[in-house]
Every structure is written in structure tokens, then in C-alpha cells.
Amino acid sequence: MKRKKITIVTAVLLLMVSAGIYFYYGIVFKEARNIASEAPDFSITAKKLFEDYNADPKKSDSVYLNKTIEITGKVTKETDSVIILENTIFCLFKEKLKVKMMNNKTTIKGKCIGYDELFMEVKIDQCTVK
């Protein structure tokens, strides 16, 4: 009887440890999204995206947050790895930009990470130029 209890407790502990290891490696080391290869969920102008966020940030988050979107607009500022469209959409790139696009209309694809109320900008991450 005592030996049977020890066997059951050992089996349950092994099962719990196995589940923990599976969870740790399955969730923690999950492969990151490749935004560049994803089809966009939305194609929108920079002005429209900013208007949506400016009107109702919570509603816009429910629509755009963590979604792959394509934004078209005029480049109003650029640095090595950042482009700002229409003074309102902050686009962060993984790598330094090689081409200057200042004052040109362009389309950027990236993941929306939300609205920055302090700077009044919509933040887009993992951007690529279309």
C-alpha cells in the first residue's frame, strides 16, 4: 500500500515537472513574429490612423494594436532607424535605413504598438519599406 502511494506521488511529480518544462520552452522561447513576411491586416493612410487614435485611443487599440498594418504617408522626419510619417506616425526599423526618403510619399509595413499620448504619436515597430 505504501509503495503504491510513493509510485503515484512520483508519477504525479514527474508529470508536473514535464508540464513545467514544456510550458517554459514552448512559451518563453516561442519564435518571434516575422512582420516583414506577414500580410497586412490593414492598409491605411497616416492621417487616418492618427485621426482614429486621436478620436478614441481605446477603440483604436482594440482594432490596430499588435496587428500588421501598412501605412502610407509623407516622410516628415528621418534618422538612422526611424521614420516619422506626417509628423504623427513613429516608425521604428530593426536596421539602419540606407535610402533617404525625406519629403517623399512612402508606404511602411509594421506592427502597431500603440499611441504615445505624451508625444501624440502612433508607434509602429519592426517596420519595413514597401
From TrEMBL:
Pfam families: tRNA_anti-like
Protein name: tRNA_anti-like
Organism of derivation: Flavobacterium crocinum
